Amino acid sequence: MKLTNLLNTDFENLNLKDDNIRNFFIKLINKNIKNQKVDLEKNLSNIIKVVHLFSNDPLIPQEDVLEKLSITKNELIEINSIIRNNSELQNIILKMGSGERYWNSILPFAKNTKNVLNDVYGFPLRIAFFPGVSCMFYCGFCGRNQDAKYPSNVAEIGINKLKSVIDEINVGSTAISISGGLEPLTNQYLGSFISHTKNKGLRVPLITNAYSLTSGYIKKNPGLWDLDSLRVSLYGVDENTYDFVTRSKRSYKMVSKNIIEFLKIRKAKNKKVKLGLNFIVLKENIKDIKKLCDFIYMINKQSETEIDFLTLREDFGSVTGHSNNLDKERKYRLEGILDTEDRKNLLNELNYLEDFKKKYFPKMNIDYGYALNGLINNKLDYHLVRAEDNEVTKRGYSQLSVAIDLLGDVFLYREAGFLNREGNKDYIIGRIEKNKTLKDVISSHLRNYKETYHKDSNRFLDSFDHLMTKLVTQASKDKEFGIPFESGPVMSRTEKVNIDLGNNWYS
Predict the structure, then answer these.
(1) What is the mean pLDDT of residues 304-333?
(2) What is the set of domains in the chain, with CATH numbers?
């Protein structure tokens, strides 16, 4: 029996009376057990069940685990200890189940949930910077106020505020990203911010729609070459599909031209910045995956070089069916929910993508994100983690992550950082000023916040914020139940994990 087969087995029906199966698991568990007398005859079945649960559902609370087992709380604590101190079982949980991608994101943050629960100050482990002034697209799945833009005189002042936050960062302890909000390239001073950040010693990833990524903009902003990665949000594969999503007639021609030109300049300059594409999977564009392959092939051929990576993401609303009647300024909406049949069709398209990649661009890395990673492994029912309204609070988790815009406003949640979005002011915890640092803002927030909930508040969370919210909720429930992370089955949740916090889509 192989470990990969282990995780795809229906454990409720696993025949542990079979000598071969029992001996396999007994040998596995005994292999690296640390100074513990373990009654495997008594605990084997429950050990396997707990390993299976956490390998596939990293966010399951201990109380829910106990409900699935016919044992006492103290017996669960004992089983957790066995698992926690066995490196083979730890490896299965973290690296061999459908929850692998979630575990990769969770582990750098899990230890710091203790600070969140106890309102202890900590500088954010991750900061999203929103330097954009405006946006020329009107994407139906975007929750921004589509009439909002910053005054032009804020562009340089705002960049200087963001630079001051960079100066607060302890290198090696905090990762950053540059995105939106609004389109980052609408800020003419963006290049100087990138260079400032790179000179600090930080990895610098940028997310852009690439509409303004012209040769002229590149020339005026040589700091773009200090990027580690540039990810282009690709909203279609031809003029019609691009116009359908963005409501911008010239968008496809501009974006494809700019990508090709950037790659040509990069090749000539021999620069190391990685360029990739992100494709949002919607009910309406599943059939376009094949055209996406053709698009990448065309870009590579015309630029005479190669795109480095491709990320594919499911739109949160399209997966969950979660929508609301707020964000009234949207020009239109996409309401399609990916049902089981859609996901079967999507899996076929992703298999085609994998075959095409192997043949025509084998070096390109494909990152499927949280949910699609499960789908590509034939798990049709594996969806994005979703936090409920009553888990989204004014407390937030500023010790883990915040977002900051051009005004210096600090937001608890990333999609609250959209300028003048209805209801977002409830999640602004302060403003960076000349005499007020990010540390000051967070410290003040922890002293003064009120634990409040709002209807439809989870619309302010992106997939990462949903995950962090569920992680904090899990930590809180486990602590209240009497089996905190320190007594749980995963050792790494209570250790400082040396894992890169940055966006590393290209490897």
Answers:
(1) 66
(2) 3-97 (no CATH), 131-376 (3.20.20.70), 389-494 (no CATH)
